[in-house]
Amino acid sequence: MKRKYIPENPASTVKHFNEFRERPVRRMLTVKEEQRILEAAPPHLRVAIILLTQTGGRTYSEGFSLRWDQVGFASKLIRLGNDVKTPGSSEPVPLSEYACEVLQAWSKEQGSKSPYVFPSPICPDRPISTVKTAWHATLRRAGVPHFPLYTLRHVFCTRLSEFAPDAVVQRAMRHTSP
User: Fold this and answer.
1) Half-sphere exposure of 105 (CA within 13 A, CB side)
2) How far is CA 109 from CA 17, 58, 113, 118, in A?
3) pLDDT at 45 over 90
4) Rounded to two decimals, what is the model's pTM?
5) Domain spanning 31-172: which CATH class is it, in words?
């Protein structure tokens, strides 16, 4: 139109998507719902749920791809290294006493069959690739409305913010800004 090749914009009558549409409200997972989910979850998913709600880790890059050599039981830290989303994410992740106990029990149960905390059932020398089916089934059995597994990161952040200032939450989430 500016160069006068066409008299008018042929897409001018096309209705645009509302980019500012209201996003669904994130609902907070209650402690009772979490307990029902943990009771309904298969063992590997139960351990992962506890780990994610206790550390605020990202689901696949920091949770399901975790290797045993990254977990320090003595120091109660997870050292993710450089295989993370941002440079700030490579900072050590503190483990709560509860998360440490659950991981130690899981380690004993798993033996030393795989370098991964959550190995693939098909190929143990690789991490599990997805838990989507198990997650959906667990929520259904627990009677909890569906929400993305990644929301467990939000659960950690929200619960921590009840007791800690924003700067502490920001550091715990390994974010560079609020």
Assistant:
1) 13
2) 51, 24, 10, 12
3) yes
4) 0.77
5) mainly alpha
